[in-house]
């Protein structure tokens, strides 16, 4: 089973990677830029596996670059809060 099959697993996976990057000294702006690049890759290359991922892809595809960067930043903030990681599917 892939982390993309379950949104909770995806958030936990992303949260762990964000925590590792932060502990390694990656600056917030750099982290958000990486999240933006990953979001673009996922949107173009990965089929959504559940309703939450489908919604994120639709939001990503509907937005311009600035809005996509904001969405990526929000995903980083979402997983930086441990209360948000365990909630949802």
TrEMBL record:
Pfam families: DUF3243
Name of the protein in its database record: DUF3243 domain-containing protein
């Amino acid at each position: 089973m892939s982390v993309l099959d379950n949104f909770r697993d995806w958030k936990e996976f992303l949260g762990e990677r964000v925590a590792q990057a932060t502990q390694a000294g990656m600056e917030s702006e750099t982290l958000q830029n990486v999240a933006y690049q990953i979001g673009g890759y996922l949107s173009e290359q990965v089929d959504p596996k559940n309703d939450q991922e489908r919604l994120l892809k639709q939001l990503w595809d509907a937005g311009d670059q600035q809005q996509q960067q904001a969405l990526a930043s929000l995903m980083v903030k979402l997983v930086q809060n441990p209360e948000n990681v365990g909630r949802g599917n």
